[in-house]
Amino acid sequence: TGHNPGTHKYNRETHKLYREAMAFFRSRKKRDIGLCAENKRMVKDLMKLGEKPWVVFYTSDEVISDLSFPSSTKLVGVTPGQIARLSNVDASQGLLAVFDKPSSLPADRKQIPIIAYLHQIKDLGNLGTIIRSAAGAELQSIITSPRSAHPWKPVVFRASAAANYMIPIYEQLEFQDALASLPSFWRVCFVQSSRKQDSDVDSLPYEKVDFRSKPTLVVLGNESFGIPGSFIETAKRCHDVVLTHIPIPENLESINVAMAASVVFFEAAKQHRCTESEEQPRYEPTQDGLEVETHADQDKEFMKESRTIIGDLDNLFPSR
After folding, report:
1. Which residue, of 39, 87, 109, 165, has the fewest CB within 10 Å?
2. Half-sphere exposure (CA, 13 Å, Cβ side) for 290?
């Protein structure tokens, strides 16, 4: 049942909620378990996903007149000045809803056998865009390295358009640990966003990489210094490795890492969405090694293995 917006005016009880919210946003520890949405579209999208805000601050009844909140949500009418002190944007729309971080995602969520590993992506807008693209391309999950930006910061969350709630995100995982969680038949694909190449492995144009042949860990590097060469050497010891790039004009040194990620993610998604008549050979893990297969139901085998990978990551990092 939705609330009547006009019944929750600012009083002693709601003042206490407001002070708790101020403390919530000022506390780093508390920010790790919740976040806020500050526009109607994002609030609606989150509620469509089944998320319920535990408190909503608003400046007028008109702001929330077309929103229907569950009975457990507390609505607090505040002044524009009060909401500005809570807000993370320059021009507030007069709405701020506080949600818990997701504890789980639907088991039947659509996904392709691609995991993104983000090495020291520090720009908040880039990270949010990468998360949004990964969710849109239906990747299996995202892993961030130590010294990466926090994926739940307000700027990242806004840039992701709430996509944080659509894809598992595992934080602060070293590259070696990510590799250790993958079966040996997974491939590692390093995406180069610049012309520089510090490896003896030939780099393929992104559209030449066959993302259907094997489940793949896609690695993207820091905006300034890219992917460490040691990562490639480490991966080559136990996995097939491929380097890929996006062809760009000679007078352009590099492209934005978030744009490179989007291009590669959606190329992988396009390949996985091909019709059965267009599909390419792919590989199935067997006791005797890798066996070439061309049956459409191989994706089910990959998804079975993918659930195992997710379980391994959950054991390393119980909370998302």
Report:
1. 109
2. 15
